[in-house]
Design goal:
Distance between the termini: 30 Å
Radius of gyration: 21 Å
Strand content: under 5%
Helix content: 55-70%
Number of domains: 1
Length: about 160
Amino acid sequence: MGPTRKRDLTAATVVATIIGYVLVLGLYRWFPPITIVTGLSLLLFGAAEAGWAFYIRSKVNDGKIGSGPGRLHPLAVARSVTIAKASAWVGALALGWWLAVLAYLLPRRDVMRVAGEDTAGAVVAAISALALAIAALWLQHCCKSPPDAPEDPDGVPE
């Protein structure tokens, strides 16, 4: 399993934005109000993943991966990579959706009162989705194994 490529996430965001815009055009009138709280769950998950990334990074840098007290089990790191990959995709697709909603709302703020009211919530949701994707990529990066120590010409690690 390789690292999640940023270009793949960008392509998914663009496709989600296009499809989302078409959906918003036809379905916006049935949307519930979009409040500031709407997208904050994405931000909470992003913050949790960023915190976990810093924790894993400190354990990896200290060489405390393995079994035993005070060590981080390798399976926990592998599961973290899986969560990071999934979260990066969720963040990218959610960002595409919220960009589509914003593309619909921004030009209509002056003519539709509800569009003006929903814009702030959509902005917060888009920023939260971006934060989740960035935190997921950071978590994925922090789960990398440290480089091996270079060997001395005598065959003894330095």
